[in-house]
Amino acid sequence: MELLGTCTALLVIWISFLLLSATWKSKMYRKGKMPPGPTPLPIFGNVLQLKGKYWDQEFSKISETYGPVFTFYLGMEPVVVLNGYEAIKEALIDQGNDFSFRAKIPLIDKLNKGGGIMFSNGKTWKQLRQFTLTTFRNFGMGKRSIEERIQKEIQYLLEQFHDTKGQPFDPHYLMINAVSSVIGSVIFGKHYGYDDKKFQTFITQIIESIEIFASICGQLFYAFPAFMEWFPGPHQHVIANYVKLKEFILEEAKEHRATLDPNSPRDFIDCFLIRMDQEKHDEASEFTMENMVTCCIDLFGAGTETTSSTLKYGLLLLQKYPEIEEKVHEEIDRVVGRSRMPGMADRRQMPYIDAVIHEIQRFMSLASVSIPHSVVKDTPFRGYVIPKGTTVFPVLISVLHDGKEFPNPTEFDPGHFLNEDGTFRKSDYFMPFSAGKRVCVGESMAHMELFLFFTSIIQNFKLKPITDPKDIDITPLEKPLGRFPRPYEFCVIPR
Asked: Where, in this chain's numbering, is heme bound (predicted)?
């Protein structure tokens, strides 16, 4: 009986291997149309090349051999990798419609089932993205009302900075709280205190899930979903987190429903509920409670970690380069003074600070590889044909660190965004929010937050590192698809 069981197990393994091999050969058959790339192994593809490495660095090395467009296999799935400004611009902008689909990410698909803004496609994506942009505009995206929401939150943050009384502290949670509270005011219509336990838990679960997605474990789920689905690990915690996030948002929606005034929407959830009521007889409507929940999670996920990490990195860089901080102080004192808060109208007169903020984003290249795209149809591209549904990885850091556009790409230099006469210099290579039709829906809001938070902090405080500036480590803490500031402490001295 034991021998029979062993033989049965071996037979199952052998049949599974044959099925996988057949699937592999059918996928490899398409390779003749695809760009060249490193030879993949059966089943594993090229994943072993990424072991212990940062994806953008490995992709850069491969592009030296195969050019700016090549094929890389994640498990048995072919991925077309785009390196450099010309290739990414040609795909995402010049052929934007063809490359406008979002690739399927197994772990995310398992959670949102193709809904929301960030990872949906077709009618769902178009309608929810347009609704979100319109709603943000109506609430003052780039106008006074959202600016006031941000300024109000800045006042809370400055109070927290003052409370440190010049002692060393880690800005991590303060920055996350401040940025997430801005998003919370737009989505939920209210300010959550920094000691609100339910909201703190909500944000912690979002940040934790983002970190898992960006980890090696999260990337293995991308390459081997059928195996990782049953394999224990942190990725299983993401599923439990999603359930709790959903419960929090549904509870907020229930409160909104009870006090809803269709003629006076207060926030994003109110607007969504009103649209749901307008389309309640349309069985094909995209405005469902499930999509509302996913949209809210998408907006928090996209806007919390990115903006807070950029602010943290910016403050670290100014400690490293006190001469740059002094120039920032001088421009703030000259244009704004110290008797009022900075406003967006001031930015036109503050080219140096604008350049510093752009350089922070360029230098850190937080999203070194864009959220994966996919082609809508069989797409001719640079002499190849990319089959419909193929995943596409634009490597954004290859644009942000382009040596011709930015002469010192690995150095922090605000001069990259300044003309010789000191005016601000725009660059088409500035793509921290990606480019084309899938550019981040919250880009305008992020620009406002970065300028207002950054300028207000420097207006009120002088940064004091706890070590000699030359010893400050500004190399990023890299994960497979992103770069983040290392944990640090510093002091702030009121000016």
From this structure: 440
Per 3-state DSSP, the chain is made up of helix, strand and coil in percentages (nearest 5) of 55, 10, 35
Q: Which helix (H) or strand (E) holds 74?
A: strand 69-74
Cα dihedral 380, 96, 425, 81 in deg (nearest 10): -50
CATH of span 84-494: 1.10.630.10
Question: Residue 73 in 3-state DSSP?
Answer: strand
DSSP class per residue in 170-201? --HHHHHHHHHHHHHHHHTSSPPPTT-HHHHH
Q: For the chain, give every domain's residue range.
A: 84-494
Residue 411: burial class (beta carbons within 10 Å; 0-12, 13-18, 19+): exposed
Q: pTM of this prediction?
A: 0.90
Residue 284, SS3?
Answer: coil
- Residue 52 gets the label, from left (phi > 0), alpha (psi -120 to 50) or beta, of left
C-beta atoms surrounding 468 within 10 Å: 7
User: Is the model's pLDDT at 9 over the cut of 50?
Assistant: no
Q: Which residues are annotated as a binding site for heme?
A: 440
139-171 per-position pLDDT tens digit:
765 555 788 889 999 999 999 999 999 999 999
Helix axes 235-258, 268-278, angle to 10 degrees: 70
Rounded Cα gap, residues 222 and 73, in angstroms: 11
Q: Which residues are annotated as a binding site?
A: 440
Give, rounded to a whole angstrom, the gap between the first and last alpha carbons of the chain. 82
